[in-house]
Amino acid sequence: MATVAELKAVLKDTLEKRGVLGHLKARIRAEVFNALNDESEPRPPLSHENLLINELIREYLEFNKYKYTASVLISDDHLRKEKGSINNIEDPLVSQAVKR
């Protein structure tokens, strides 16, 4: 019969191979930061420039396959709730920069 340590090792290896472990760690980190964040003071709305900077950072993370780090950035609620949110940016920022 397998020991608890062996079962933990097999479970960890399986989750790593499926790419789930990194996602779970990133999600837990994001939730911990959200829980620790002081919500009593509302954040000021993001300026259009800051929204673009955040989107550029997200693009960089996703382009370089830092999908778990990007998921932590995206999970920060204010990025999606802002008016003119990331979803409303027509072209990727790198594309916009090249066109200039």
From TrEMBL:
Tree of life domain: Eukaryota
PANTHER family noted in UniProt: CENTROSOMAL PROTEIN 20, FGFR1 ONCOGENE PARTNER/LISH DOMAIN-CONTAINING PROTEIN
Keyword line: Cell projection, Cilium biogenesis/degradation, Cytoplasm, Cytoskeleton
InterPro entries linked: FOP_dimerisation-dom_N (IPR018993), LisH (IPR006594)
Protein name: Centrosomal protein 20
One of the GO biological process terms: cilium assembly
GO CC annotation: centriole; centrosome; ciliary basal body; motile cilium
Keyword Cytoplasm part of the UniProt annotation: yes
Main location: cytoplasm
Signal peptide per UniProt: none
Organism: Panthera leo
Keyword Chloroplast: no
Domain FGFR1 oncogene partner (FOP) N-terminal dimerisation as annotated: residue spans: 43-89
Family stated for the protein in its record: Belongs to the CEP43 family.
Localization, UniProt: Cytoplasm, Cytoskeleton, Cilium basal body; Cytoplasm, Cytoskeleton, Microtubule organizing center, Centrosome, Centriole
One Pfam assignment: FOP_dimer
